[in-house]
Protein backbone atom coordinates (compact mmCIF):
# COMPACT_ATOMS: atom_id res chain seq x y z
CA UNK A 1 0.00 0.00 0.00
CA UNK A 2 1.37 3.47 -0.88
CA UNK A 3 2.47 5.48 2.15
CA UNK A 4 -0.25 8.08 1.69
CA UNK A 5 -3.04 5.49 1.45
CA UNK A 6 -1.65 3.56 4.40
CA UNK A 7 -1.64 6.68 6.57
CA UNK A 8 -5.21 7.58 5.68
CA UNK A 9 -6.29 3.98 6.30
CA UNK A 10 -4.55 4.14 9.68
CA UNK A 11 -6.48 7.29 10.55
CA UNK A 12 -9.79 5.67 9.60
CA UNK A 13 -8.97 2.58 11.69
CA UNK A 14 -8.13 4.77 14.68
CA UNK A 15 -11.44 6.64 14.30
CA UNK A 16 -13.38 3.36 14.21
CA UNK A 17 -11.44 1.98 17.16
CA UNK A 18 -12.17 5.07 19.25
CA UNK A 19 -15.88 4.82 18.44
CA UNK A 20 -15.89 1.23 19.67
CA UNK A 21 -13.87 2.16 22.76
CA UNK A 22 -16.44 4.84 23.59
CA UNK A 23 -19.20 2.21 23.40
CA UNK A 24 -17.07 -0.01 25.63
CA UNK A 25 -16.63 2.82 28.14
CA UNK A 26 -20.35 3.54 28.37
CA UNK A 27 -21.18 -0.14 28.77
CA UNK A 28 -18.41 -0.61 31.32
CA UNK A 29 -19.61 2.36 33.37
CA UNK A 30 -23.07 0.85 33.39
CA UNK A 31 -21.90 -2.60 34.50
CA UNK A 32 -19.26 -1.62 37.05
CA UNK A 33 -22.01 -0.12 39.20
CA UNK A 34 -23.20 -3.69 39.86
CA UNK A 35 -20.24 -5.98 39.26
CA UNK A 36 -16.62 -5.97 40.45
CA UNK A 37 -13.65 -4.96 38.32
CA UNK A 38 -12.34 -8.52 38.43
CA UNK A 39 -15.61 -9.87 37.03
CA UNK A 40 -15.65 -7.35 34.22
CA UNK A 41 -12.08 -8.15 33.20
CA UNK A 42 -12.56 -11.92 33.48
CA UNK A 43 -15.89 -12.25 31.65
CA UNK A 44 -15.16 -9.72 28.93
CA UNK A 45 -11.77 -11.36 28.26
CA UNK A 46 -13.31 -14.84 28.16
CA UNK A 47 -15.87 -13.68 25.59
CA UNK A 48 -13.18 -11.97 23.51
CA UNK A 49 -10.95 -15.07 23.56
CA UNK A 50 -13.89 -17.25 22.48
CA UNK A 51 -14.38 -15.03 19.42
CA UNK A 52 -10.65 -14.82 18.78
CA UNK A 53 -10.01 -18.59 19.09
CA UNK A 54 -10.79 -19.61 15.45
CA UNK A 55 -8.50 -16.86 14.14
CA UNK A 56 -5.78 -17.87 16.60
CA UNK A 57 -5.99 -21.51 15.47
CA UNK A 58 -5.74 -20.41 11.86
CA UNK A 59 -2.73 -18.24 12.71
CA UNK A 60 -0.93 -21.22 14.22
CA UNK A 61 0.49 -22.01 17.64
CA UNK A 62 4.03 -21.07 16.66
CA UNK A 63 3.12 -17.40 16.24
CA UNK A 64 1.75 -17.28 19.79
CA UNK A 65 4.44 -19.34 21.48
CA UNK A 66 7.37 -17.68 19.70
CA UNK A 67 6.41 -14.08 18.93
CA UNK A 68 8.93 -11.41 17.99
CA UNK A 69 10.57 -9.59 20.90
CA UNK A 70 8.89 -11.70 23.64
CA UNK A 71 10.10 -9.35 26.38
CA UNK A 72 8.36 -6.38 24.77
CA UNK A 73 5.29 -8.54 24.14
CA UNK A 74 5.04 -9.35 27.84
CA UNK A 75 5.55 -5.70 28.76
CA UNK A 76 2.74 -4.70 26.41
CA UNK A 77 0.46 -7.34 27.94
CA UNK A 78 1.16 -6.03 31.45
CA UNK A 79 0.58 -2.44 30.33
CA UNK A 80 -2.69 -3.24 28.57
CA UNK A 81 -4.13 -5.43 31.33
CA UNK A 82 -3.19 -2.97 34.06
CA UNK A 83 -4.55 -0.03 32.06
CA UNK A 84 -7.91 -1.80 31.63
CA UNK A 85 -8.15 -2.58 35.35
CA UNK A 86 -7.29 1.00 36.31
CA UNK A 87 -9.93 2.39 33.95
CA UNK A 88 -12.75 0.34 35.48
CA UNK A 89 -11.45 1.10 38.97
CA UNK A 90 -11.40 4.85 38.26
CA UNK A 91 -14.76 4.99 36.51
CA UNK A 92 -16.37 3.20 39.46
CA UNK A 93 -15.63 6.24 41.64
CA UNK A 94 -15.43 9.14 39.19
CA UNK A 95 -17.99 10.49 36.72
CA UNK A 96 -17.41 9.13 33.24
CA UNK A 97 -16.66 12.65 31.97
CA UNK A 98 -13.90 13.19 34.54
CA UNK A 99 -12.32 9.82 33.84
CA UNK A 100 -12.37 10.38 30.10
CA UNK A 101 -10.84 13.83 30.51
CA UNK A 102 -7.83 12.39 32.31
CA UNK A 103 -7.55 9.41 29.95
CA UNK A 104 -7.49 11.67 26.93
CA UNK A 105 -4.18 13.05 28.13
CA UNK A 106 -2.76 9.85 26.59
CA UNK A 107 -2.27 11.35 23.09
CA UNK A 108 -0.02 14.06 24.53
CA UNK A 109 2.10 11.44 26.30
CA UNK A 110 2.12 9.31 23.15
CA UNK A 111 3.28 12.14 20.89
CA UNK A 112 6.16 12.80 23.30
CA UNK A 113 7.01 9.10 23.56
CA UNK A 114 6.89 8.70 19.78
CA UNK A 115 9.55 11.37 19.50
CA UNK A 116 11.71 10.12 22.38
CA UNK A 117 11.38 6.34 22.04
CA UNK A 118 10.59 5.74 18.37
CA UNK A 119 12.56 8.66 16.98
CA UNK A 120 9.57 9.84 14.94
CA UNK A 121 9.71 13.36 13.61
CA UNK A 122 7.05 15.48 15.32
CA UNK A 123 6.91 19.01 13.95
CA UNK A 124 5.64 22.05 15.79
CA UNK A 125 2.28 21.99 14.02
CA UNK A 126 1.47 18.50 15.27
CA UNK A 127 2.56 19.40 18.80
CA UNK A 128 0.26 22.43 18.73
CA UNK A 129 -2.64 20.39 17.34
CA UNK A 130 -2.26 17.76 20.06
CA UNK A 131 -2.15 20.42 22.77
CA UNK A 132 -5.18 22.24 21.35
CA UNK A 133 -7.05 18.94 21.31
CA UNK A 134 -6.30 18.35 24.97
CA UNK A 135 -7.38 21.89 25.84
CA UNK A 136 -10.62 21.18 24.02
CA UNK A 137 -11.15 18.06 26.12
CA UNK A 138 -10.57 20.03 29.34
CA UNK A 139 -13.04 22.72 28.27
CA UNK A 140 -15.68 20.30 27.04
CA UNK A 141 -15.72 17.96 30.03
CA UNK A 142 -15.07 20.60 32.71
CA UNK A 143 -13.54 18.30 35.36
CA UNK A 144 -15.05 18.62 38.81
CA UNK A 145 -13.17 19.10 42.06
CA UNK A 146 -12.86 15.31 42.21
CA UNK A 147 -10.14 15.59 39.58
CA UNK A 148 -7.49 15.78 42.35
CA UNK A 149 -8.74 12.69 44.20
CA UNK A 150 -7.01 9.34 44.45
CA UNK A 151 -9.26 7.76 41.77
CA UNK A 152 -8.22 10.60 39.45
CA UNK A 153 -4.56 9.82 40.11
CA UNK A 154 -5.35 6.20 39.26
CA UNK A 155 -6.86 7.41 35.99
CA UNK A 156 -3.79 9.56 35.29
CA UNK A 157 -1.48 6.56 35.74
CA UNK A 158 -3.80 4.59 33.47
CA UNK A 159 -3.57 7.21 30.73
CA UNK A 160 0.23 7.07 30.84
CA UNK A 161 0.15 3.25 30.64
CA UNK A 162 -2.26 3.48 27.70
CA UNK A 163 0.15 5.72 25.82
CA UNK A 164 3.05 3.37 26.60
CA UNK A 165 1.01 0.42 25.35
CA UNK A 166 0.41 2.19 22.04
CA UNK A 167 4.10 2.92 21.62
CA UNK A 168 4.92 -0.73 22.35
CA UNK A 169 2.36 -1.74 19.73
CA UNK A 170 4.09 0.48 17.22
CA UNK A 171 7.43 -1.20 17.99
CA UNK A 172 5.78 -4.61 17.47
CA UNK A 173 4.16 -3.77 14.13
CA UNK A 174 5.70 -6.90 12.60
CA UNK A 175 3.60 -9.14 14.88
CA UNK A 176 0.25 -10.34 13.48
CA UNK A 177 -2.75 -8.47 14.89
CA UNK A 178 -4.34 -11.68 16.20
CA UNK A 179 -1.20 -12.46 18.21
CA UNK A 180 -0.97 -8.96 19.69
CA UNK A 181 -4.61 -8.84 20.73
CA UNK A 182 -4.63 -12.48 21.84
CA UNK A 183 -1.71 -11.97 24.20
CA UNK A 184 -3.21 -8.78 25.58
CA UNK A 185 -6.66 -10.32 26.09
CA UNK A 186 -5.20 -13.36 27.84
CA UNK A 187 -3.20 -11.09 30.13
CA UNK A 188 -6.36 -9.17 31.03
CA UNK A 189 -8.11 -12.45 31.80
CA UNK A 190 -5.31 -13.37 34.22
CA UNK A 191 -5.65 -10.00 35.95
CA UNK A 192 -9.39 -10.64 36.26
CA UNK A 193 -8.74 -14.04 37.83
CA UNK A 194 -6.35 -12.45 40.29
CA UNK A 195 -8.98 -9.91 41.35
CA UNK A 196 -11.84 -12.39 41.77
CA UNK A 197 -11.18 -13.00 45.51
CA UNK A 198 -12.11 -9.35 46.12
CA UNK A 199 -15.77 -9.96 45.25
CA UNK A 200 -18.24 -11.76 43.00
CA UNK A 201 -21.85 -10.92 42.09
CA UNK A 202 -23.68 -13.58 40.11
CA UNK A 203 -24.83 -11.86 36.89
CA UNK A 204 -28.28 -12.19 35.41
CA UNK A 205 -28.72 -13.75 31.98
CA UNK A 206 -29.14 -10.33 30.38
CA UNK A 207 -26.08 -8.92 32.13
CA UNK A 208 -24.06 -11.98 31.14
CA UNK A 209 -24.84 -11.14 27.52
CA UNK A 210 -23.81 -7.52 28.12
CA UNK A 211 -20.54 -8.61 29.74
CA UNK A 212 -19.85 -10.81 26.74
CA UNK A 213 -20.68 -7.94 24.39
CA UNK A 214 -18.28 -5.76 26.37
CA UNK A 215 -15.48 -8.16 25.55
CA UNK A 216 -16.31 -8.43 21.86
CA UNK A 217 -16.52 -4.64 21.42
CA UNK A 218 -13.21 -4.19 23.26
CA UNK A 219 -11.63 -6.91 21.10
CA UNK A 220 -12.61 -5.27 17.81
CA UNK A 221 -11.57 -1.85 19.17
CA UNK A 222 -8.10 -3.17 20.06
CA UNK A 223 -7.78 -4.76 16.62
CA UNK A 224 -8.62 -1.44 14.97
CA UNK A 225 -6.15 0.54 17.08
CA UNK A 226 -3.44 -2.10 16.62
CA UNK A 227 -3.87 -2.04 12.84
CA UNK A 228 -3.92 1.77 12.88
CA UNK A 229 -0.54 1.92 14.59
CA UNK A 230 0.89 -0.48 12.00
CA UNK A 231 -0.37 1.57 9.07
CA UNK A 232 0.75 5.01 10.25
CA UNK A 233 3.08 6.74 12.68
CA UNK A 234 1.88 6.97 16.28
CA UNK A 235 2.35 10.75 16.33
CA UNK A 236 -0.10 10.99 13.41
CA UNK A 237 -2.95 8.68 14.42
CA UNK A 238 -2.91 8.88 18.23
CA UNK A 239 -4.24 12.48 18.41
CA UNK A 240 -7.45 11.27 16.73
CA UNK A 241 -8.40 9.76 20.07
CA UNK A 242 -9.78 13.21 20.81
CA UNK A 243 -12.86 12.27 18.76
CA UNK A 244 -13.87 10.29 21.84
CA UNK A 245 -15.36 13.49 23.23
CA UNK A 246 -17.76 13.73 20.28
CA UNK A 247 -19.09 10.26 21.05
CA UNK A 248 -19.13 11.08 24.77
CA UNK A 249 -21.44 14.01 24.06
CA UNK A 250 -23.73 11.87 21.92
CA UNK A 251 -23.86 8.78 24.14
CA UNK A 252 -24.05 10.88 27.31
CA UNK A 253 -27.23 12.44 25.93
CA UNK A 254 -28.73 9.20 24.56
CA UNK A 255 -27.85 6.85 27.44
CA UNK A 256 -27.56 9.00 30.56
CA UNK A 257 -29.68 12.00 29.56
CA UNK A 258 -26.80 14.46 29.89
CA UNK A 259 -27.54 17.55 27.81
CA UNK A 260 -24.32 19.12 26.46
CA UNK A 261 -23.38 22.47 27.97
CA UNK A 262 -22.01 25.35 25.85
CA UNK A 263 -18.52 24.64 27.21
CA UNK A 264 -18.76 21.05 26.03
CA UNK A 265 -19.78 22.14 22.55
CA UNK A 266 -16.90 24.64 22.43
CA UNK A 267 -14.44 21.97 23.51
CA UNK A 268 -15.80 19.53 20.95
CA UNK A 269 -15.32 22.17 18.25
CA UNK A 270 -11.66 22.60 19.26
CA UNK A 271 -11.13 18.84 19.18
CA UNK A 272 -12.67 18.46 15.74
CA UNK A 273 -10.63 21.43 14.48
CA UNK A 274 -7.41 19.87 15.85
CA UNK A 275 -8.23 16.58 14.12
CA UNK A 276 -8.88 18.32 10.80
CA UNK A 277 -5.60 20.24 11.06
CA UNK A 278 -3.73 16.98 11.69
CA UNK A 279 -5.41 15.40 8.66
CA UNK A 280 -4.49 18.33 6.41
CA UNK A 281 -0.89 18.33 7.66
CA UNK A 282 -0.55 14.61 7.03
CA UNK A 283 -1.99 14.81 3.53
CA UNK A 284 0.49 17.57 2.68
CA UNK A 285 3.41 15.67 4.19
CA UNK A 286 2.53 12.44 2.37
CA UNK A 287 2.01 14.11 -1.02
CA UNK A 288 4.34 12.46 -3.54
CA UNK A 289 7.42 14.52 -4.34
CA UNK A 290 6.72 14.22 -8.06
CA UNK A 291 3.30 15.79 -7.62
CA UNK A 292 4.81 18.68 -5.69
CA UNK A 293 7.49 19.19 -8.34
CA UNK A 294 4.87 19.12 -11.09
CA UNK A 295 2.86 21.81 -9.34
CA UNK A 296 5.99 23.99 -9.03
CA UNK A 297 6.69 23.65 -12.74
CA UNK A 298 3.10 24.58 -13.56
CA UNK A 299 3.31 27.68 -11.36
CA UNK A 300 6.61 28.76 -12.96
CA UNK A 301 5.24 28.29 -16.50
CA UNK A 302 2.13 30.31 -15.70
How is this fold's topology laid out?
Elements: H1 3-32, H2 37-59, H3 61-65, H4 70-91, H5 96-103, H6 106-116, H7 124-141, H8 150-171, H9 177-195, H10 205-231, H11 234-237, H12 244-255, H13 262-285, H14 289-301
Helix pairs in contact: 1-10, 1-12, 2-4, 2-9, 2-10, 4-8, 4-9, 5-7, 5-8, 6-8, 7-13, 8-10, 9-10
The helical percent reads: over 70%
In whole angstroms, the N-to-C terminal distance is 34 Å
Shape summary: globular
Q: What's the pLDDT, averaged over the residues?
A: 79
Give the biggest sheet: none
The succession of helices and strands, N to C, reads HHHHHHHHHHHHHH
Strand content: under 5%
Oligomeric state: single chain
Radius of gyration: 20 Å
Report the structural category: mainly alpha
Q: What is the count of structural domains? A: 1
Q: Note the total helix count.
A: 14
Low-confidence stretches: 292-302
Characterize the structure shown.
The chain has 302 residues and is mainly alpha-helical. Helix content is 79%, strand content 0%. It contains 14 helices and no strands.
In short:
The protein is mostly helical.
What descriptors fit this protein?
0% strand; mainly alpha; 302 residues; disordered C terminus
Amino acid sequence: MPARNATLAGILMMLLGILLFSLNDVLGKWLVATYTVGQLLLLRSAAALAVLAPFAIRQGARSFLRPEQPGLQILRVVLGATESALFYLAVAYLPLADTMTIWLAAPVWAVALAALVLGERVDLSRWLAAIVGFIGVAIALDPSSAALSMPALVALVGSVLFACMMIAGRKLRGTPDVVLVGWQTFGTLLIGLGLLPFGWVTPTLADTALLGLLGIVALVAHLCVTRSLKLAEASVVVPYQYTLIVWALLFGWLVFGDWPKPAMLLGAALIVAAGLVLLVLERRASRPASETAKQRVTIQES
